[in-house]
Give the backbone structure.
Amino acid sequence: MKIDNGTQGHLIIAGVHNGLCGVSDGVLSFQPNIRTKKPESANGALLNGETIRISVWKSPDNPGFYLATFEALQ
């Protein structure tokens, strides 16, 4: 059985997060480190310098962490 622990990326969400995040199977995982905006209200970000569209929700398994699906914007 193969387990995918994902990779790390640099995520910037204005007013929510600036730093490392986990990336696995099209989902980001991060812990907010800037709290001027609600994480769930974010809809855009930079992942490794590329602009992405995101949909954020609170992690049901890890309090304090958030998950987000994302897609690249071209």
Remarks:
- The CA atoms of residues 5 and 24 lie 7 Å apart.
- The mean pLDDT is 92.
- DSSP finds no helices and six strands in the chain.
